[in-house]
Amino acid sequence: MATAPAAFQQADTAIAMTGTPRLALDPSQTTFCDPSGLNALIRVWKRVRPAGGEPVLLRPHRGVATVLQRTGLNHMLPIHDALPD
Hints:
By secondary structure, the chain is mainly alpha-helical. It has a domain at 29-85. It is 48% helix and 8% strand. It has four helices and three strands, in the order αβαβααβ. It has a three-stranded parallel beta sheet, with no helix packed on it. The protein starts with a helix and ends in a 5-residue tail after the last strand.
C-alpha cells in the first residue's frame, strides 16, 4: 500500500481528537493489495481500536475487497459504500 504513511497519519490524527476516533479509508483507486498492504491495514486497525474507534473502508476495488474477504480482514475493517452514520 503506497499510501500507508498517510493512513497512519490519519489514524494518529483521529486518535488525537476528542471523543471516539472515526477513520474512513478510501482504497477505491487501489487495484492490488499484497501482504505488506494487508499489514498496513492491520496496523491502522491496531492504532484506532484501543482508542475505541472503528476504521472502515469505503468502496474498495473489487480485487482488494476479494483479498479482504478471503483473509477475513473485512470483519476487522468493515466495507461501506458511503460514510457510516
